[in-house]
Amino acid sequence: xxxxxxxxxxLIASLMVAATPLLLAAIGxxxxxxxxxxxxxxxxxxxxxxxxxxxxxVETGSPLLGFVAAAAAGALLSxxxxxxxxxxxxxxxxxxxxxxxxxxxxxxxMGQRYVxxxxxxxxxxxxxxxxxxPVVGRILFGxxxxxxxxxxxxxxxxxxxxxxxxxxxxxxxxxxxxxxHALGYKVVKIRTLAILFGGAxxxxxxxxxxxxxxxxxxxxxxxxxxxxxxxxxxxxxxKPWRALLGAYLFGGVTVVQLNLQAAGVAIxxxxxxxxxxxxxxxxxxxxxxxxxxxxxxxxxxxxxSR
Length: 306
Hints:
Elements: H1 8-34, H2 42-60, H3 63-87, H4 92-110, H5 136-140, H6 145-163, H7 165-175, H8 177-182, H9 187-213, H10 225-235, H11 240-263, H12 269-287
Helix pairs in contact: 1-6, 1-9, 1-10, 1-11, 2-3, 2-4, 2-9, 2-10, 3-4, 3-9, 6-7, 6-11, 10-11, 10-12, 11-12
């Protein structure tokens, strides 16, 4: 065992990369749940976004186009959820589970010809002077543009929800869709837009895994990140900045256990591999006891005829 082989600077920088796909998916689902909809299909949308982004990047040679395609694929798959839950008024939990299973199967079919392929690399953002700073420069200013986009998106969602009329309407629909409908707001339209936004974010998170974090295609490579994103929304009490902290917590645990494995720590690999999930569940249980922040209409279907 050689713990001196673990570089703390690289550890923190890797933590930020590991947290990004989780953050993108969690922020998207947070907006969806703020509208009063529970979409358990995050994992399915992420894996479809992962293969759509990977395939597009490989075929076009442009990682940026890959991310655009991933967002579109995630939103398109979420449209299926819209039809089931907002039009046909199917059960949201069952529809979300079906969406995940469908996404896993569809991605496996789409990805058969891309196993073993390598995507084009995404360039890093080089900020003059800041990128050259010792320690801080490597940790904060040597990443790809999508990582910074995830942080900016978190800030934007927080600002919109807290200070804008759009955020107020979204929260009103999530709290009491009947009252919002009585005031003249189009509940189904608002929820549809929120679901499409969540799907696009999940697709981006999936593409980040296949194009940057693990630049290759492997069937089922999201490995439960979508489910952790769902848990993080509850852990965060539906607050964007807490979702960011939760994503970095999970990303940190993931990176630490990988570094401990590389350092030869005398703990079975299986225990280290499951530690991020166990710790996330533990934190979730401890910190999410207060459900007062949950939207009151969460998971309830809206019947326009009432």
